[in-house]
Each structure stands twice: as structure tokens, then as C-alpha cells.
Amino acid sequence: MVCLGNICRSPLAEGILKQKAKDAGLNWEVDSAGTYGGHAGEKPDRRSRKVAEENSIDISKQRSRQFNGYDFEQFDIIYAMDKSNELDLLRLAKDDAEKAKVKMIMNELEPSEDIAVPDPYYGEYGFENVYKMLDLACDKIIEKYGK
Ligand code: 4NP
User: Fold this and answer.
1) Fewer CB within 10 Å, N side or C side of the chain?
2) Which CATH number fits domain 2-145: 3.30.870.10, 3.40.718.10, 3.40.50.2300, 3.10.580.10?
3) Residue 109 pLDDT more than 80?
């Protein structure tokens, strides 16, 4: 799960998918990172921790880290939250096989629509809405790949 800072959106996506995978009895490795490393080592944003907690998901132990090339080898699917994250990831991919791992997360629900999970950092778009979008997307991911 990849966003810009790895403190708002992708920590929520990681927490939500981890919980759903666990509930479904799936032994998946789920992680998150940011394309920008400026928040590395920080806890998720207080507002993300709050909305997670309200939904019984604990993301407080997560720490921000920057996405790196090894992640392309480690993971089967790399979900970008928005187009800018997707373009950054595609630039980092070293070949077509790595590029093929990059997907916009909301395309799981609305294929090819390239709907963004909006950046809530500056407060115009609520964390609750981000949570709801990611919750629906993660349900779809479990339904699609959790066989
Ligand atoms: P995120 O939100 O990408 O969802 O973690 C942001 C976090 C930090 C910044 C921007 C977006 N920033 O500019 O520092």
C-alpha cells in the first residue's frame, strides 16, 4: 500500500487489509510505504490513528518508511492511492514485470476509472471518507484474491 508520506492513507490501507486478511484466515504479508521519505520513522498521522481506532483497527505500531526497489521483489501487488503515487512507482520499476505489479487501489472497485483516494493531509477531505473508500477496496481485494 503506497501513498506519498506513508502517514495518512497507506497506513490505514495496511491496517484495514491486514485485519480483513486475518479475519478471512489468509496468511498474507501486507505492508505500506511512501514514495516520499520525509516522514520516515514517524507514527501514522493522529487523525488516521483516530479513525482506525474508531473502527477497531490498531495502526499505532506502524512507522513510516520510504518505498524502495526491493519492495518490487517482495510483493506481488503494489497499490497506489493516487495517480501521482502510481507515476512515481512506475518510474522506479526496473522492468515491465515490476510495472505490471503497480495498480491504483480504487480500480479494484471501478476498473480503469483511476479514481484517487484523496490526500487528507491538509484537511479538505475527511479521514472518515478515506477510511470508507479503503474499507470497500479492501473488501474487494479479499473477495478477488482470497481464494
Ligand atoms: P499521505 O499524506 O500521503 O496519505 O501519507 C501526506 C502526508 C504528508 C505529506 C503529504 C501527504 N507531506 O507533504 O508531508
Assistant:
1) C
2) 3.40.50.2300
3) yes
